[in-house]
Specification:
Two copies of one chain form a homodimer. Chain A is 50% helix and 13% strand. The two termini of chain A are 40 Å apart. At the A-B interface, helix 3, helix 4, helix 6 and helix 11 of A face helix 4, helix 6 and helix 10 of B. Chain A binds a DNA duplex (30 and 30 nucleotides) through helix 8 and helix 10.
DNA sequence: TTAAAAATACACCGAAAGGGTTATTGACTT
DNA sequence: AAGTCAATAACCCTTTCGGTGTATTTTTAA
């Protein structure tokens, strides 16, 4: 075990970054980058044939994204650890990745030495994350169970309308219930989406009434 | 800001450890241990009078434990960060502490240098955790996002697609995830709506996973 | 009393959702 | 061998949704 190399695969669409990572990994004792892939489809097709310790996965890929790719690969590669390596540091991406099975999450601005350390850490059972990422994860735990604080920002009218949304009412139906115009309903909903940082009805409901 | 010291208080019942931590903090430039307390009751009584950056809190204390102490102190000290510093590495203690408002969680076997680094990290907005701790946190998240109970009228494929619907995915996003055409996704969804006797996504979700 | 937030409304626009229909393939049943 | 079902895919069509603006009124707060 001691002398064996940690085998690494990389999924990254930007050639410069992909090659830089490959060189980094291959140039370090104890690591070996055996395969690299430029997109999710290629990775899905070829990666399961190899027994890999650690996958460095970019999120922003053409076509299927890195999170979807990982989700598809996970059941095929039960002994492989996945680490997201991306420029995204927003909550949605972080939580989505971690809930989908990533064990580590680092940002591309992480230093080469730290990337290698993170790979080793991951392989040894750790969950390497930068501390900004860790803080967000911790915050998310603290906010579990209670209706998210963003919901508190909603006005009474907005909450009322959100409630209709949750029951599947159409804009015009809500308008009829409240004796206001459909346009006003739309405006309220637009404001709700702004406050909750979402784009669709379903996302808003998931955020507002987060189920366990 | 650069020249200012990070003020630290310590709550720890074992005198040897308490004094070792105090010496460590006071002997390092950029840090100052202004107060130490031997139990939760003393800390609760005296600590809120001081403006402290970081509290190192032991969990196992005589009487009230460190988690309860932190919960009581938090509302009184909104600008203070709490770091649990304990021998417990079991899930219950970790989650309880983090959900109760701790921003960092380190084990007592952490090296002196790493403790100092963790204090600085915490003060700068990070969430220092050893990677074993991080891994446990991540695992707990992964077990939260599991699929709800199935509607047995639906085929496997339909259930799968319903699950994507519940997460707010667009048709084309589902199509990309499943490697099928958007039209097929639409057809499946149409069949789902038929079986559930509904017309919209939200109604389907209400029917499938009935929430209040 | 002045400023702000909240609620109301409308117009233009493109994207997305959903209804209806038809068709091909493979798998399982009878 | 015929029939059913599930999964796949495409077509046309209308409605709904959501973004980006602007604007008026009312309420609330400073």
């Amino acid at each position: 075990m001691k002398g064996e190399k940690i085998t690494v695969s990389i999924v990254e669409d930007i050639e410069d970054i992909r090659e830089a990572l490959r060189v980094l990994v291959n140039g370090s004792t104890g690591f070996e980058c055996t395969h690299v892939y430029a997109d999710a489809e290629e990775a899905l097709d070829k990666m399961p044939a190899n027994d890999i310790d650690v996958v460095l996965m970019d999120i922003n890929l053409p076509g299927m994204d890195g999170i979807g790719c990982m989700k598809a690969l996970k059941p095929l590669m039960p002994n492989t650890q996945f680490m997201m390596c991306t420029v995204y540091d927003d909550d949605d991406h972080i939580f989505n990745a971690l809930q989908s099975g990533a064990s580590g999450y680092i940002l591309k601005r992480t230093s080469p030495a730290q990337i290698l350390e993170a790979i080793r850490d991951l392989h040894e059972g750790g969950s390497p994350m930068s501390s900004e990422i860790a803080r967000r994860v911790v915050f998310s735990m603290q906010n579990k169970g209670k209706t998210s604080e963003a919901v508190e920002l909603l006005t009474d009218r907005e909450t009322e309308i959100l409630d209709f949304l949750s029951k599947g009412y159409l804009y015009k139906e809500i308008a009829a219930e409240l004796f206001i115009s459909k346009e006003t309903v739309k405006k309220h909903i637009h404001n709700i989406y702004d406050k909750l940082h979402v784009q669709t009805r379903t996302e808003a409901l998931n955020k507002a009434y987060q189920r366990k």
